[in-house]
Design a protein that fits this description.
Length: about 290
């Protein structure tokens, strides 16, 4: 999977350069708040969501440049969600991306404001695309029908056994919606027609599912050194997960089924989508 790792590194570099330009436009004050934002936003990470947006644009038009505003916005929204998820009122985690969480370094109030700022300024970044559809796509993926709603359902489901249907809904909202939006935003900004957009949407939905199942499995089988965050925390908080509900073997089977469905969704594309095919496999084979 070295080819995928190099691809992700390249897309991360492109996204980080663009985010630096965004932040430069914000100014330098309040300095401590900007420091807290940069601490979380530029922590070492895969930048999967920006890579999906940039990659979808490349598949459609051969150039990832049109998707850069969306890539920045997606990573800002994702990072905001991590900062808030780690707060004592939520998951109360001490480690994220291999370093102390924001509230441990800057305090709860500053961490909360850093997350609020990232969510707000993400839409400033997205607006630079000049496409109102991107604003709506991101708002829907981050709101009650997406990430925020999924986090609420996840909290509600703690300490009780849920059905597979409920678990799918939790993670389709909490994780899948933003991953789906990543692919869709890149495709739309590249000028995808309805058929291509539908195919890439199906791909995004399936890799989102595969990603969440793999994350659940890593929380059981991974190491803190590799993942950069605590492992075993889902079980200790009695959270609803695929391994917890179905067992590790069946969870792995479902992840493989999602990878197969994601690959099938790309059938209308040729070699321009080969990296997305490899990326789907990488998502379930990664160790972090």
């Amino acid at each position: 999977m070295k080819k995928v790792a190099l691809y992700l590194q390249d897309k991360a570099r492109r996204t980080e350069q663009a985010m630096e330009q965004c932040i430069a436009e914000w100014g330098t004050e309040p300095a401590r708040l900007i420091e807290a934002i940069r601490y979380s936003l530029f922590a070492p990470a895969k930048r999967l969501r920006p890579a999906l947006a940039l990659g979808a644009a490349e598949i459609v038009c051969g150039d990832d440049t049109p998707a850069l505003p969306a890539a920045c916005a997606l990573e800002m929204i994702h990072t905001y969600s991590l900062i808030h998820d780690d707060l004592p009122a939520m998951d109360n985690d001490d480690l994220r991306r291999g370093r102390p969480t924001s509230h441990k370094v800057f305090g709860e109030a500053t961490a909360m404001l850093a997350g609020d700022t990232l969510l707000t300024m993400a839409f400033d970044a997205a607006a630079q695309s000049g496409d109102i559809r991107i604003i709506r796509e991101l708002a829907q993926a981050a709101g009650v029908g997406g990430m925020a709603g999924g986090q609420f359902y996840d909290i509600e489901a703690e300490k009780r056994m849920v059905t597979l249907e409920e678990l799918r809904r939790i993670h389709a909202f909490k994780t899948g919606a933003l991953i789906r939006a990543s692919v869709r935003c890149g495709a739309m900004l590249a000028g995808a027609d309805a058929v291509a957009l539908e195919a890439l949407t199906r791909y995004g939905e399936q890799v989102g599912l595969a990603f969440q199942i793999a994350d659940d499995i890593l929380n059981v089988t991974g190491t803190q050194e590799a993942t950069g965050k605590p492992v075993g925390s889902d079980a200790s908080r009695e959270k609803s997960t695929y391994p917890g509900l179905l067992g590790l073997e069946r969870a792995r089977e479902l992840a493989e089924e999602a990878v197969a469905a994601a690959t099938t969704a790309l059938e209308r594309f040729g070699e321009e989508a080969d990296m997305f095919r490899l990326l789907a496999r990488f998502i379930v084979e990664r160790d972090r």
